[in-house]
């Protein structure tokens, strides 16, 4: 898909990252907007086969995400966002997307843990008020998506 279609994906991706940082919630409209934006692009590009293949890839990621969601390892919004991003990424770049997402997510988890430790030390061991708990993994998903989508020729 040409680079110029990125303008359809970027606003919902940025909204997902901001919402996940601030509230640890990814609004349902974000994955919906991503999938609809891709559908519009494929309709304009006259590529119905590409649309069907992309939706199948997204469905596969959604189904694969059910297990870690059920185990409490990842949030439902993160699973939906990853599936919607997979629609844009496609099968060819999906392994790279997953690796980049995991690396950024691990780094994000370390930074989140370090910030919590520093906040507790500064607050003399009491649990300070601060941002919501958990790792804003949507940020890792968005970073990996932008890495892949912006880097395509």
TrEMBL record:
Show the InterPro entries listed in the entry. Answer: Preflagellin_Peptidase, Prepilin_IV_endopep_pep
Q: Keywords for this entry? A: Cell membrane, Hydrolase, Membrane, Transmembrane, Transmembrane helix
Major location (coarse): membrane
Q: Which Gene3D superfamilies match?
A: 1.20.120.1220
Q: Where in the cell is it found?
A: Cell membrane
* Membrane topology of this protein: Multi-pass membrane protein
From the record, give the transmembrane residue ranges.
29-44, 51-74, 86-113, 134-150
| Record domain Prepilin type IV endopeptidase peptidase: where | 12-110
Highest taxon of the lineage: Bacteria
| E.C. number | 3.4.23.43
GO MF, any single term: aspartic-type endopeptidase activity
**Protein name in the entry:** Prepilin peptidase
